[in-house]
Write a structure and sequence with these properties.
With 148 residues, the chain is of the alpha/beta class. The protein has 4 helices and 8 strands, in the order βαββαββαβαββ. The longest helix is centred in the N-terminal third of the chain and has 13 residues.
Amino acid sequence: MSTLVTFFSVEGTTAKVAKEFAKTIEADIFEIVPQKPYTAADIKWMNPIARCNREQIGNKDVPVTGKIDNFEQYDKVYIGFPIWYGAQPKVVSTFCKGYDWSGKKVYVFATSGGSGIGKTAEKLKPFVAGAAIADAKLVRNASEIDVL
C-alpha cells in the first residue's frame, strides 16, 4: 500500500506545503482542481456574494477536474486545503465524494484559518465515509504536518 497527498489551493500556499510534504515522505500527489478556476474576486470572503461564500452557504457540489487512477492502492491519504467557514471548501467535499474511502486513514491539514481549525475533521468525515480520520491540524509549513 502507499501514501497520497492531495490538496486544494487557490493562492499557492497549500500547494507549496503539500508538494514539499509529499516530497519529504515520498508520497504521490494530486491537486484538487475545480472545473471553473477561482478568481481573486471569487475568494474575497468579506464580500457576501463572492463565489466562496455562495458555495459554502449554498452547500452545493463544486465540480472537479481530473480523477485519481487506482485510488484503492492508497492506505494513507493526507488532504490539505485552506479553511473556509471553519471547514473544508466545497470543492474538497465534492472531490471526496468521488472515491471509496473504506479502510483508509485520512490526515487533514489546513494552511489558513481565520476562523480557526474548529471541527474541520468532523465536518469532513461524512465525505470520507469508511475511513479513519485524524483530527485536522493547522500548519504554516510542511514540517508541521505529522508523519503517520
